[in-house]
Structure formats: structure tokens, C-alpha cells
């Protein structure tokens, strides 16, 4: 079953759609939840701006009410009003029924907090736009890293498949010699054990490939059951410019902190605005009906009278003393601003370090790749010569097994060196702020 697993896996891959790195990245940007949520946050920022802008626009509200007074309040009035000087008379005021309807308008004329809020809202939109860009770059980075890991593991599986086939052929030759009395049983048993060990490695790697593919599909937002095929031409070593130090201040991580710093600045400014006076205007027009009966649809002939009235007012609010609460909030906002400034400095150093580390890793990987490429070539020649010598009785079985193991190890070292290079290449592209180029 283990022997048949790899051909089955390859058959499934052959039925899947060819997936280049560009295809994988673009698919992830369209389907991964993180990228979709970041775009929704940008859209939501527009609604936040509209919400703040509403505070500077007129507010109009209508109102209506109906009141029934079962017992009217009696008020003590001087009898002089009723022709009885020197006495006090209890007289009810008002009517049993009262109804009113009106429209009221309120307009802010000056409120520094509102104007600062508008500036902060626009910066919030910019913050989410940069955050969406950073999220897309993180999606690209994860997809690229996992894409290359899948490729390397498939290459390792291909090496084991080839080694298994060669080892099986040698085992069959030894078995034929053993059947004719020309080989020892211990040699046949050792080759059978070696073949079983290679098969076990293949099965383990088959499972690892399947798990890594599932991880890649998850980071792409692709259904797990979808078969994928990664073409061999995608994994190449290309020359890179490592001399020019990039401007890390254009990185999304840095720009996001700059936007956050600006938001903290406006937050502090909005708190300081509480020291400023605010001025607003309000106006209203109302219609009032009173009488002994429910006023609706009634006339003066029914004892119901309708009157209208209107008000226009200006409202000035002058802060005098808030118990030092505003001052404390201003100082807290100042601390947040200073902390962000320190984060920006630290992030700048971190981004510069990431570039240097990626460049160093690439240089080392290129040396390792060159060495391992020659090592694989030499190991293949040694294995072929050893197999030929063994068949001619000029080499021992131990020499043959050692040569095969050395070839497998050399191939794995070479593919791992390629993986290290490609992962470092992704980090270098990221350090230059050019991850979006992987979508082209």
C-alpha cells in the first residue's frame, strides 16, 4: 500500500489545476478571509467618517405627544384676581387634554472637538488602507513560504521515488543471483531491509506533502479537497541586487505606525478641545392643542383651542473647571504618543535588520547551493560506479548501500539549500517593500 501511495498522489496531482506562485498569491488575495476582512475595514472607515461628519451637520427631529390629566393641579391664587380681596382661592390651571406636535433643529456652530474628529476620521481611513496593504503582504508572504515548502517536499519525494526504483532493480538482480546460488542470503535480506526503509521514508514524506499542501490551501482560502499541481519551472535561483540598502520607511509596517501616531496626535488634540468653548444654535416650531376633550380633530366650538409657538436660541458652553480630569486625559494621550514614537524608532531598526539578515542568508545559500549541486553530481557518479562495480563483483554491498544513502542525503541537502534561498528571497522582497511584485 505504501509503495502504491506515491503513484496515486502523482495521479491526483496530474488531475489538478497547475498552480504557479502568482496564481496562488492572487487566489489568496481574493479568497482568504484576512484579506477580505481588511477590505471590509477600509469600507467601514468610510462609514465612520460619515458618522463624525454628521456631528457638524444640522440635526432635525420631529416630536408629538398627547397628555390626559385626570386630576388637574390646583394652585393657590390671591382672591384679588376673582373680585374677593384678602382671600385665597384654589383654582385649577390647564385643561384635561393637551396635545402637541413640532419640529426642532440643532446646528453646531463651533466645536473644536467636532472639527478634530473629522480630521481623525480621515486619518482612520488612511490607517485602514495601510493596514489592508499590510494584511495583503502578510498573506502573500505566508503563501509564498508554504508554496516553496510544498515544492521542496515534492522534490524530496521524487528523489526517493527514483532511489526506490534503482534499489528495487538491484534487489531483483541479487534475488536472481541468490536463486542461482551466486549470492548470499544475507545480501538479499540487507537489500530487502534497505528497500523497506526507503519505502517507509517515502510514506512519511507522502504524508508530509499532503499536510503541507493542506496548509498552503488554508493560507490561500482554497477548499482543502482541491488538487493542485506545482510546476518545476517555478523553483529557480535568480540573481538579486544585494548592494543597495532599501528605504524601509516605505514599508507598510512603518507606515502603519506613522498613521497610528497621527491618530494619537488627533486624540490628544480632541481632548485638549474640551478646554475650548462650544457654540450651537437651536430652533423649533410647535403646535399646541388644549381642551376638556381629546384635542384631535376638534374645534373652538368644542372648547378645544390650537395655538402655535416658535423658539430660536443660541447656546454657549464655557468649560470652567473639570476637577483636573481633562488635564489627566491630555497627559495620558501624550504618553501614548511618545510610546508610539519609540515603537517607530524600534520598528525602523527591526526592518533594517531584516534586510541585512535576508541578504546575508541569500549569500550563504548561494554558496551552499553551488557546493551541494556539485556534491549531488559527485554522489550520483559514485552511486552509479558503485552499482556497476557491485554487479561486477568489485564492490561490497555495504559500499553500495553507503553510496545510495549518500546520494539521498546530498539530494536532500541540495533541495533544503534551495528552500533556504527561496525563503530568504521572500524576506528580501519583503524588506524592499515589493511583495506585491509576486502577484505579477
Automatic annotation (TrEMBL):
Intracellular or extracellular location(s): Cell outer membrane
Residue runs in coiled coils: 330-389
UniProt KW Transmembrane keyword: yes
UniProt xrefs under InterPro entries: OMP_efflux, TolC-like
Family: Belongs to the outer membrane factor (OMF) (TC 1.B.17) family.
Keyword Membrane part of the UniProt annotation: yes
One Pfam family matching this protein: OEP
Protein name, as recorded: TolC family protein
Listed GO CC annotations: cell outer membrane; efflux pump complex
Domain of life per record: Bacteria
Gene Ontology MF term list: efflux transmembrane transporter activity; porin activity
First-listed, main subcellular location of the protein, grouped into a coarse class: membrane
